[in-house]
Amino acid sequence: MSAPDDLSFATLPHAAPVSPERRAELLVDPGFGRVFTDHMVTIRYVEGRGWHDARVEARAPISLDPAAAVLHYAQEIFEGLKAYRTADGGAALFRPEANALRFRRSAERLAMPPLPDAVFVESVKQLVSADRDWIPSSEGGSLYLRPFMIASEVFLGVKPSSEYLYLVIASAVGAYFKGGSETVTVWVSRDQTRAAPGGTGAAKCGGNYAASLRAQAAAVEHGCAQVVFLDAIERRWVEELGGMNIFFVFDDGSMVTPPLSDTILSGITRDSILTLAKADGLTVAERPYSIDDWKADAASGRLREVFACGTAAVITPVGTVRSADGEFSVSDNVAGPVTKRLRSALVDIQRGNAPDPHGWVTRVY
Ligand SMILES: *Cc1c(COP(=O)(O)O)cnc(C)c1O
Hints:
By secondary structure, the chain is an alpha+beta fold. The protein folds into 2 domains: 9-173, D-amino Acid Aminotransferase, Chain A, domain 1 (2-Layer Sandwich), CATH 3.30.470.10; 184-350, D-amino Acid Aminotransferase, Chain A, domain 2 (Alpha-Beta Barrel). It is 25% helix and 29% strand. The protein has helices at 20-26, 70-73, 96-109, 117-130, 206-221, 268-279, 291-300, 337-350, and strands spanning 10-11, 35-36, 39-46, 50-58, 76-78, 81-85, 91-94, 142-151, 163-173, 184-189, 226-230, 238-241, 245-250, 255-257, 284-286, 303-310, 314-323, 326-329, 361-364. Strands 1, 2, 3, 4, 5, 6, 7, 8, 9 and 19 form a 10-stranded mixed beta sheet that branches. Strands 10, 11, 12, 13, 14, 15, 16, 17 and 18 form a 9-stranded mixed beta sheet that branches. A hairpin with a 4-residue loop joins strand 13 (245-250) and strand 14. Helix 3 (96-109) packs across helix 4 (117-130). The longest helix has 16 residues, at 206-221. The structure holds pyridoxal-5'-phosphate (PLP). Residues 80, 204, 240, 243-245, 265, 267-270, 310-311 line the site of pyridoxal-5'-phosphate.
């Protein structure tokens, strides 16, 4: 059973919100994922009753029974999207319907009940509305929204939970990478993979991240910012980074990105870039690309630019590729013109500084 689309939200404003002075201090240099707003959204689900008790309330610790299913079998999914401060002082969300759809698909894969798309979008709007003063107006700043759902039934048996808790929290974030034209060095994980065919790689679930942390730590140990995962079968095809999709730009102006499958997360930034690149007259092929192609095309000079993309960092240029058997670099480690152009086109739409021909921006009042 699912909720009616008009599930109404009870608003219980925070009794002692952070003062405007303290908030201004926190917003100067918030970093990523450490500064949280005053409120959160909670909605409960019980089998047979459906979604109910939607609230916007003070952000606070939640209490969970130690036998809550999520703590044992990791039945959890999440989303990530941003609200931006618009030039006129308002607020805008970028493609929240796409996150709602992906959340529903992730729920299906993890045997969780679907949250109606309209309820998802409304929950995010409600939180942005309640905490609109927390949206940084600094360049590159935004309010990162984290909707997620956990299995809350008190039972140690292995089966889909019959009770769930959905929440949305918000975190003020600064520019992910300062400067913006510096490339990152990536580590190719040869021994560990992120996702296997038939697994949960295409679902946005915490378990995928738990499985990727060791490889990410190895990347950092080797002086790299991010890890590149190869396919689990041949250990040859480039899939994605730990939390970002990847694009390759060639000397003839064409682009390649790995095709979506059940081992690659369908990024909304990826999808937006495909649309913007095509509108820009670039040809983009969604086709398999191997780590050997990457090395050979970098050596021949045919490969001009590589970038990773995702909501948190938008577009990150990739330079050096390091692995257990050496390293190579693409275009002298500087962000290329196509990377910069696509990033500006996307950011300008997100921030309301450019027309929105694809209907991607949702104003929040
Ligand atoms: C969220 C995520 C992405 C990027 O998706 P966006 O919608 O662009 O933010 C890419 N890969 C993984 C594994 C992710 O979890």
